[in-house]
Amino acid sequence: MKRILLADDNSELRTMMQEWLEDAGYHVDTAANGLEVLEQQTRMPADLVITDMCMPKVDGLETIVALRRQDPGIKIIAISGDDGDHGRNYLRAAESFGAVRSFAKPVRSGDLLAAVRELMGATVTES
What are all long-range contacts of 8-15, with beta carbons under 8 Å and residues at least 24 apart? Predict the structure, then answer.
């Protein structure tokens, strides 16, 4: 089964996005910060990482750089609060450091699921 690792320090948003992805048939592990992402990715690599950019301990940019070092082919989606230029700059930086897609919050379920399907394939439920 294809696995997604979803990181966001906002537990409500993390739970909401996890439900969208699981309803679409993906296995989703979650993390509250970049340090947890890196630890989980080392133990059990995911096929796709969705990471918030502003998180405690290890932020999104550091997470993306470290993930790319571990696995240059890892698929990464970056998300960030839309607080004007700061949020847009974070997302541009995320893409320049290796995120293949980026979204400003609030992320729409259809947009996120379309990107995930494109990156991972439409058929997800496997026995």
Answer: 8/32, 8/51, 8/52, 8/55, 8/79, 9/33, 9/52, 9/54, 9/55, 9/56, 10/52, 13/105
Reported as a single tens digit per residue, the pLDDT across 12-40 is: 999 999 999 999 999 999 999 999 999 99
Total domains in the fold of the chain: 1
Q: Is residue 126 part of a domain?
A: no
Q: How many angstroms separate the CA atoms of 32 and 36, rounded?
A: 7
- Which residues form the domain of 52? 3-119
Q: Summarize pLDDT for 71-101 with one digit per residue, the tens.
A: 999 999 999 986 655 567 788 889 999 999 9
Residues 68, 44: Cα–Cα separation, whole Å: 16
